[in-house]
Design brief:
Layout lengths: L3 E5 L11 H10 L3 E8 L5 E3 L4 E2 L2 E2 L5 H7 L6 H8 L4 E6 L5 H11 L5 E5 L2 H10 L4 E6 L4 H7 L3 H11 L3 E4 L7 H6 L6 E3 L5 H8 L4 E6 L2 H13 L5
Parallel strand pairs: 1-2, 1-11, 2-6, 6-7, 7-8, 8-9, 10-11
Antiparallel strand pairs: 2-3, 4-5
Length: 239
């Protein structure tokens, strides 16, 4: 099977990222999944936003009304779910730990367990999801800047693989530049699927389409990913 093409924060190459417009554009382009980031405000409203701050103010210290005053395009999680329901599958990234139960309640109300995955850079968040709903598919995100990943590196590849096993992630999601490192080849077995982020260069996408380890490609340009995947299916000798 060819990898899934996952729209990073929606079709963020063509619309403001993590907005309803961006999600709608990704759906119109035919993306297999839409990826977005979830954070929580001081008054416990779940919103879609990547950065921890808005105008240098931590989101966790702002009310939803204050967030809207800074940027009215930031949607609630419920709004994103309502837009995407019945139209596309979701890749929901938890930017923090602590609100896993509420996120799962909202998602499970409108999506079956096969219609979304949960990802996070935080092992505790992955563990929490698995404790609450063992059947939900989860992925551990990491890159060179991931704190827990870098700490594990001090102890070698076994420590990294042990942490992945302990959190019970179903797949790993490294930055694409880590794919050809010796570390990743030692950490990942053939049984662990890989999703990669964030890939926007045609030559890299073409290379990934021919990599049997890859199950998902996260990109700001879902149309490019879909075009290259279709070409690979039609003319496999060119890939």
């Amino acid at each position: 099977m060819q990898p899934l093409v996952i729209a990073h924060r929606g079709a963020s190459a063509y619309a403001k990222e993590n907005t309803l417009i961006s999600f709608d554009k990704a759906i119109a382009l035919g993306a297999d999944m839409v990826e977005f980031d979830v954070r929580r405000t001081r008054d416990r409203v779940l919103i879609i936003h990547h950065d921890a701050e808005i105008n240098q103010k931590p989101i966790r210290q702002l009310t939803y009304a204050q967030v809207q005053a800074f940027d009215p395009d930031i949607p609630k999680l419920e709004e994103a779910i309502a837009l995407c329901r019945g139209r596309v599958r979701l890749d929901v990234e938890l930017k923090e730990a602590g609100y896993e139960k509420r996120v799962l309640e909202l998602l499970s109300r409108y999506f079956s367990k096969d219609e979304f995955v949960i990802t996070s850079f935080h092992p505790f968040a992955i563990n929490a999801v698995k404790r609450l709903c063992p059947d939900i598919k989860t992925g551990f995100l990491f890159g060179y800047g991931t704190v827990d990943f870098c700490r594990s590196l001090r102890f070698g590849s076994k420590a990294v693989s042990d942490r992945i096993r302990e959190m019970r992630a179903d797949f790993i999601a490294p930055h694409w530049e880590l794919l050809d490192t010796d570390l990743l080849s030692r950490v990942v077995t053939g049984r662990m699927p890989i999703w990669v982020w964030t890939v926007n260069e045609a030559s890299v996408i073409e290379h990934l389409l021919n990599d049997s380890r890859i199950e998902g490609i996260i990109t700001d340009k879902p149309d490019l990913g879909l075009q290259l995947r279709q070409r690979a299916l039609a003319y496999p000798e060119l890939v």
